[in-house]
């Protein structure tokens, strides 16, 4: 069985497209190749790698959503270029870039809106990922309370969905929401 390998086009091009230096890109590429010798990562491998950061919980659902956010071509694998573009946005992008990326992560069905079901799935996935060390301890209705608070702040026109603009405006206006966004970034 032959293994298909992928090699990125050129570091100069990636350097121009990201907020990383050539040296940083070389280091990131070495790490990526170490974990994914073929130069691409499939979802199962991504889940396995991501789960190592959350040994006391089940990170598989959140890792699935995160994988889909990085897989910008929706082909079932993440090339180094896709990975580093997302990482650049999350680590060094503008606030708006980070919020747009996060919105797309939460917009599970990619319809341009975040609905209650999507937000509930994301919140539950985060709690599952944190596992038994979630503080305060998770009670049955806590995810629903988080989703209700999210929609109360975000859904300005009360139509049951949150648009990208509603999301960005509400996050920028609400310091507490910004801290929540940083918390979710930390589980990225």
Automatic annotation (TrEMBL):
GO molecular function: calcium ion binding; potassium channel regulator activity; transmembrane transporter binding
InterPro entries according to UniProt: EF-hand-dom_pair (IPR011992), EF_Hand_1_Ca_BS (IPR018247), EF_hand_dom (IPR002048), Recoverin (IPR028846)
Protein name per its UniProtKB record: EF-hand domain-containing protein
Protein role: May be involved in the calcium-dependent regulation of rhodopsin phosphorylation. Binds three calcium ions.
Pfam families in UniProt: EF-hand_7 (PF13499), EF-hand_8 (PF13833)
GO CC annotations, alphabetized: voltage-gated potassium channel complex
Residue stretches making up the EF-hand domain: 58-93, 94-129, 142-177
Family to which the UniProt record says this protein belongs: Belongs to the recoverin family.
Organism: Oncorhynchus mykiss
One record GO biological process: regulation of potassium ion transmembrane transport
Gene3D superfamilies for this protein: EF-hand
Record-linked CDD domains: EFh
The entry's keywords: Calcium, Lipoprotein, Metal-binding, Myristate, Repeat
């Amino acid at each position: 069985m032959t293994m298909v390998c992928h090699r990125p086009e050129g570091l100069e091009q990636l350097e121009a497209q990201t907020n990383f230096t050539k040296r940083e890109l070389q280091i990131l590429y070495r790490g990526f190749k170490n974990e994914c010798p073929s130069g691409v990562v499939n979802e199962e491998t991504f889940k396995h790698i991501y789960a190592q950061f959350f040994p006391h919980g089940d990170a598989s659902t959140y890792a699935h959503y995160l994988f889909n956010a990085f897989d910008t071509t929706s082909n079932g694998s993440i090339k180094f270029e896709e990975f580093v573009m997302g990482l650049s946005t999350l680590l060094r992008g503008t606030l708006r870039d980070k919020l747009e990326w996060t919105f797309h992560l939460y917009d599970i069905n990619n319809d341009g809106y975040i609905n209650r079901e999507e937000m509930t799935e994301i919140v539950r996935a985060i709690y599952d990922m944190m596992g038994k060390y979630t503080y305060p301890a998770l009670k049955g209705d806590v995810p629903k309370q988080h989703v209700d608070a999210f929609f109360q702040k975000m859904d300005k026109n009360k139509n049951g969905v949150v648009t990208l603009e509603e999301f960005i405006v509400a996050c920028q206006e609400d310091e507490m929401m910004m801290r929540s966004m940083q918390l979710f970034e930390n589980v990225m």
